[in-house]
Specification:
The chain is α/β, with parallel strands linked by helices. It contains 8 helices and 16 strands. Strands 3-4-7-8-9-10-15-16 form an 8-stranded parallel beta barrel, surrounded by 6 helices. A hairpin with a 2-residue loop joins strand 5 and strand 6. The mean pLDDT is about 95.
Amino acid sequence: MSSAGVDTTVDLAGIPLRNPVLTASGTFGYGTEFSPFLDLRRIGGFVAKSLTLEPRIGNPPPRIAEAPSAMLNAISLENVGVDEFIRTKLPAIPDGVTVIASAFETEIDRYAEVCARLSGVPRIAGLEINASCPHVKSGGIEFGQDPAVLARLVASARRATTGPLLVKLSPNVTHIAEMARVCEGEGADGVSLINAVQALEIDTSTRRPVLANGLGGLSGPAIRPIALRMVWQAAQAISIPICGIGGIGSAEDAIKFLLAGATAVQVGTANYLHPAIAGEISDGMAAYAENHGYARLADLIGALEFPAR
């Protein structure tokens, strides 16, 4: 409950949140890096950096570049590994902070092992499966691009954990609603969307891509209308909750995602520019609700008045 008297609490896939604002995986480290700038108990929680079975170094630089109203990155999910996260990173996070762990791998059985190691660990409120990674055994296609592969991934992760399970979906698909339905059908408790949009930028002086990897993921304000469209489409197709992601940099941006059907949101690229922005967004959402006569932020979920078709 905010100081303004607005009930800001929401339930995201069985994870109770004090407000709908999370920070996105890969943009907030392991939480402690942002503690000097933001009291983490001021926001709903955060999604930790994606974890693999073993430590991962990631791509060589350059792996981050500016793009028009956006950021392009090809970090390749560098992380300390799931065991080191549990041993050293998780205990350092302040008490009272809601932590959602993110899992990714290159094969389904390895995804399941990451989920199994995280399942039941104290302080972890739920898991988010990053389904936008290349599947080695399928020739490099993203897990989230093939409905059959996605179904096997979600089913395997569901068997590996009894806790709340979200699936983070790739935007690099034709029909996002179909992918959301697959997740619901295989037992996911919620979906997060969207991940970064695959993109390319070129340096004309060298006639080479600006990133060493060539292709990268586009994030930031430029993709927000795409993300809103996909959240709305998914919301029409499923009954499980949605966590909206993509170019959120203000309370107004976050409110748009709730109106489109999201239960909660994740702030990503904006954290790089303003490390305390998530707290300001959570306060601003409560102020919006009060100014517009809403007693609960949850009453805004799906309240978009879309033109009749």
